[in-house]
Structures are given as structure tokens and as C-alpha cells.
Amino acid sequence: xxxxNKDLSYREIMAxxxxxxxSKYSQTTYTIRPANRPTTIGGCWVMNHSFxxxxxGDYVEVHGRFDVNVWYSYxxxxxxxxxxxxxxxxxxxALRDLDTNCDRDSREVDIRVLQSPNxxxxxxTGNGSEILVxxxxxxxxxxLGRTKLCVVTCDVIDKKDEDFIEDEEDLLxxxxxxx
Length: 179
Known about the structure:
By secondary structure, the protein is mostly beta strands.
């Protein structure tokens, strides 16, 4: 069917849509100061991750924190203890495909943890009084907001009732499968 311009019109539809998105992988080294001088590291784990995000210009700023626990030996490997510390971070996540026409007042940030904070390694520093813990994580964000969609519309041509498929049986009969 060929349509002329006189048959076409436009409609603007308001929609709640993704107006921008981004993600960021990071590795950060934190310094843990245990009560005793560590001899060796027995293990390290990260837990209790919490965060919040806000849109700042054309990027999302994430403020988060988590607990780092390091199991270590001391006193010539004759005793063990766990060093615990809560660390904070700030990540700035650049947005791609940010729709500047998206209603600024309606914008909200949806954040997802793509990879939970995880300890990659923990080592005793050269002077032996601190433990360096390297942690990796990946965060993803989407900015949602109200935006307008412009769609082309046209007049519906009158159809006879028999032109419409009545039920699924008729639909199945019309489908041809090629080998």
C-alpha cells in the first residue's frame, strides 16, 4: 500500500524511558591497619555493600561503603585475628546516549551491581604494620525519565470482517514453514 503525505499525521506520546546509561569497572587498593603486626594473610572477604546514586550533570555519582575483613596470623604465625574496617568510595560513572530532551524534573537513577565488591589480593606491606587489600567491583546505571516519542500515524482503511483473522486456528493455517 502506498500512502501520500496527506494520509500521514503525527502524534507525540509521553513515555517513561531510559534516557542514558553507563557502567564502570574499578579496582581500588585500601589500607587496613590491624591491631597486631601481621605475619601472613589467611584470607580476605568483602561484605555489607551499600550505596546510593545521584545524577550530577552528565554523569552519575555513586557513594558507597562496604566492610573488609582480613584474617591474618601474627606473633610468628602462632596466633590469628581478623582485622575489620569499613571503607567508603565515590565513583563517577559517565553516561552514554544521554537524552538531553528528557524532562529534567522527572529523572531518576537506577543502579545495579554488575559485580559485587570482591577481594583480589591482600598483602602485608614492606614495614609489616599494614595490609593492602585490592578490591574489584562493577556498577551499572540507567537514568530514567519522561520523554516524548513522535510517531507517524495514518488513516485506517476500511476492512471487511472477513479480512481479519478470527481465531488461532485460522492463523495456524496461514503459516507456511519452509524446510
